[in-house]
Write a structure and sequence with these properties.
alpha+beta, Fructose-1,6-Bisphosphatase, Chain A, domain 1, D-Maltodextrin-Binding Protein, domain 2, 7-stranded mixed beta sheet, globular
Length: 267
């Protein structure tokens, strides 16, 4: 598999940002709060700056959580754009539980065509898209030899595992699990912070991720691209259609992410 230069650039950006995030994680840092009440740290800002240094030379416009966003009147004319979360799971970062990540997705006419999610603590990443499949690597393997390997598809288990947010575990998600477990014997529930949930979905240690609380495009775009490369997807609960990006509102609708599209009956 020969990766497109744009994909390689995104992977390098995610790894370099992750390395700096991990350095800050090991220090005594303070969290500030945005006007919406969400936390932000020096790691968010540092990561954003590093990623921008990598992505700006591609001449593709960027939607970054930590940067001012172009008005929709301008964005609506973009054929391609990057969708970036420099530090997904800042609440988990502040808690120091290790469950945070870096997300970078490439969007083409509203659809995520490539995504990379990197774990600064585990020093591993997953990446992929519908046109190339899904892959994994370690920071060391990528940096020393550019090595990566396909994520091997796993057969669906009879006992489904639902994965939910660690910090945003809503009543709706609990009710969804209770409904699922009432129909599906031996259904299990696990919790994890940030887009690291997509590591579980792509490796089939979890099959369903319902989200009935607010998320933004940069939280999910990379994960959707990777899942679509693995035969899964992320679907709007109301319409059952795949999520779209670079919308007028960057807020996502409620969604259910599936490790395999054969599970769409659970939407």
């Amino acid at each position: 598999m020969v990766l497109q230069p744009l994909f390689i650039t995104a992977i390098n950006a995610a790894i370099q940002a992750s390395i700096e995030i991990k350095k800050i994680y090991e220090t005594q840092f303070e969290a500030q709060f945005k006007t919406d009440g969400s936390p932000v740290t020096i790691a968010d800002i540092t990561s954003s700056k590093i990623i921008l240094k990598w992505l700006i030379p591609t001449a593709i416009p960027i939607v970054d959580e930590e940067q001012a966003h172009a008005p929709y009147e301008e964005r609506r004319n973009w054929e391609y754009c990057w969708c970036v979360d420099p530090l997904d799971g800042t609440k988990e970062f502040v808690k120091k539980n290790g469950e945070f990540a870096v997300n970078i997705a490439l969007i083409h006419q509203g659809a995520p065509v490539f995504g990379v999610i990197a774990s600064p603590v585990e020093r591993t990443l997953i990446f992929g898209g519908a046109s190339i499949g899904g892959f994994t690597s370690t920071f060391h393997a990528w940096e020393t030899s550019g090595d990566f390997k396909p994520i091997q598809p796993q057969p669906l288990k009879k006992e489904l595992t639902l994965i939910a947010s660690a910090s945003h575990h809503t009543v709706s998600a609990v009710n969804y699990f209770e409904e699922l477990s009432g129909i599906q014997k031996n259904a299990q529930l696990i919790q994890k912070g940030s887009s690291l949930k997509f590591f579980e979905l792509t490796h089939n240690t979890a099959q369903i991720y319902p989200r009935f609380a607010p998320t933004m495009e940069w939280d999910i775009a990379a994960g959707q691209a990777i899942l679509e490369g693995m035969g899964g997807g992320v679907f709007n609960v109301a319409t059952k259609a795949p999520l779209r990006y670079n919308k007028e509102s960057l807020l996502n609708p409620h969604f259910i992410a599936l490790s395999d599209v054969s599970l769409t009956k659970w939407i």
